[in-house]
Amino acid sequence: MLVWILAGLAVAIVPFILVALNAQRKYRPLFDDAHLVEVAELLARLKGEADADGVASVISSHDLAITWDASRPEIALSHRDGKLHQAAGAFLARFTVALISPPPEAEVAFTRAHGRYVVRLALPPEAGAAFRAAPVTVPALADLPPLRARAADAMRTTRFEPA
User: What share of the chain is helix, strand, coil (3-state, %, to 5)?
Assistant: First the structure.
């Protein structure tokens, strides 16, 4: 009899535990601080590696591909497996804009190309020139909270369009 009561309690409690774990995972930051610093380092390296056409591409340790096209000017972010979620991509795009000083108004577009989701960050021509001219400052861990907050604030105005 005691076994049946304990089994009934377990069945009743397990769904609540699963919901709590899912909520905890849902509201954690999209990227940890080390990954955001790596994105900034890759952007700084990217500018120096542009080829004759002004195009350069690097891949992070988290399989995030970042491409800089100086002719447009545009920064494209994609995941090598094609699994970049819209919110994560928009956050990274807004974080990238926050690294440029002063942060420009940029158009964020979420598209699908070659079977992969791609976030395209189109910069105005003057912002592209500023990005080419000014060094990308790689933030220290202590400097990340304001950048993260600025990116999260900019995401509130980001429109998600179907891919």
Answer: 50, 20, 35
